[in-house]
Amino acid sequence: MEQPTEKKYRYTVGTSVKCHTGRGWQLGVIVRIDYKEPGWSKVVPYQVRLNSGPLIYVPADTPELCIRASAIETPDGIKSALLDFFHEDVDTAKVTIAGIQKALNDLGWEEDEGDSKKAVESLKKLPVKAWSLFTMKSMLEMEKDLCGASAASAGRAMVLLERSELKDKDRLLAHNLGLRAYSLIDFMAPKAASVDASKATELDKSNELYKGIKAYADDLAAFVSRRSKERKAYEDSKVPVTVLTGFLGSGKTTLLNYILKEQKEKKYAVIENEFGAVGVDDQLIRNKFDSDEDIIEMNNGCICCTVRGDLIKTLKKINFMIAKGKKFDGVIIETTGMADPAPVAQTFFADDDVAGTFKIDGIITVVDCKWIIERLDEEKKGENEAVEQVAFADVILLNKTDLVDKARVDKVKARILDINSQAKMIETKYSRVDLNKITNIGGFSLDRVLASDEEFFNFDQEHEHDSSVSSVGVVLKGELEMTKFNRFIGKMMREKGVDLYRSKGVVAIQGMNKRFVFQAVHMLFGGEPTTAWKKGEKRVSRMIFIGKNLDEKEIKEDAEACLAKSTAALQVDEKFIFGSGSGYKA
């Protein structure tokens, strides 16, 4: 096959490349340059034989259509390092991902899908020499276009290498930085890739490869900037995901209800996450949906750690619904008030199926102006979730401004600016806001996130909740007597109000034909009758209390004491004001 006398293209015949086909990125080899079919008036740069068999042509020599498959060679020393695990002469060309996974499992490596906390603890127990397994695994995953997995494996290799005392530690760290840079390029995050490549160059100055990767990333960044319209069209084809976050009691569910009410013409899939085992929020929004399948509960764990694997499965379930023909204008995720939004965002880059269908549109953080400064300044045994929620936000709603004066609002703004100067702040009451400012805003920027959090692609970062904070869920079959319920809630407010971050419930009151919904933040309480019970529907009350040092046994016993023993047909005034001590009428 003839080569052109002048180098007019980036690659030559025989180069292994990845081509952006109608079925995504596929591996292949360039077999001809300056290709032209009979009858064509135009010559194209390359003809490529895909590894799967077919011959294709590449219409333009651009990074968006064709990139080198891998410029990173297997590092010196990895073969001898792998001998520690395979106990035979290792041919790295025959090592498989499955074989490496088995070797890791034999060492005690545990990794449930999306369970970052378990992965962190497991990584701490692995011997340092396991770096070679993760490095090789990253290379194999990159070859198979498993970009998220490749980035995670490279990150794990680096964690182990940092603990090592190897003489060529810097060179091996540089190698893994180069691997991650390539993965970031595939994620179309060239600026972050350039940062990794620069670090690799500093660690291994003799290797010109990393300079080449950086130059490639910088060229791609410029190319993406020039082709932003095409890139935007590709991203616009994905289903936008809005993440609602904010500390307990800030007004997230109120905002979600408002979105669903005001945008009735839009079709959303909603993922509800609650900290406790008893779900209440879904009861507050379920009547907004045509079918139960459009709202998915994820209870008894925090979406950023304990049930993070469930989030991936849930998104794949929605993806399957879309593939079957169901149309969604977007997905809304309401996190628990204890969630760190960063691991939630990572989910959309950790799994290729998820990344191919969904995009994060924006992280919306709701803050309670009355309590947010205390939450931000609170010293906790684990992470301060309120700080994480503010720091990661694209838009921050300064909610409940009706409960504070202007001086307090200004103080809140100043405090938030110290943490996040990039987010847009909007003052709200009852979580009401111009929805054009929080949905379909394209507010999430991976490059911006990586600029402030270099460890974003370290999927094993551990999120540690304050161990003194717990939830107590109560489910009671039957109706409650209003007077007893009044005393029970009054006692909780008086004795536990300071430590009680959040209380909410949907309860059946004897003599009332409608559900009674209550919500409280510390001692601030509100409640009202809402939707009517259906004829023949079983009356079940659900309550959740979240706070510090809660006595589960005492709370459940006090709640059970509220059950009505009499079946007398009392009628309750629906204008009843909670806490007045009255409300029954003949």
Question: Can you offer a commentary on this structure?
Answer:
This protein is an alpha/beta fold and 586 residues long. It is 38% helix and 21% strand. The protein contains 20 helices and 19 strands. The chain has helices at residues 78-86, 97-106, 116-125, 131-143, 147-162, 169-186, 190-203, 208-226, 228-236, 252-262, 281-285, 308-323, 341-350, 352-357, 372-377, 385-391, 406-419, 446-452, 482-496, 552-560, and strands spanning 16-21, 24-35, 44-50, 55-58, 66-68, 239-245, 268-273, 295-298, 330-334, 358-368, 395-399, 424-427, 469-477, 500-507, 514-521, 524-532, 540-548, 571-572, 584-585. The strands form four sheets. A seven-stranded parallel β-sheet has the order 8-7-9-6-10-11-12, with helices on both faces. Strands 4-3-2-1-5 form a five-stranded antiparallel β-sheet, with no helix packed on it. A five-stranded antiparallel β-sheet has the order 13-17-14-15-16. Strand 7, helix 11 (281-285) and strand 8 (295-298) form a beta-alpha-beta unit. Helix 6 (169-186) runs parallel beside helix 8.
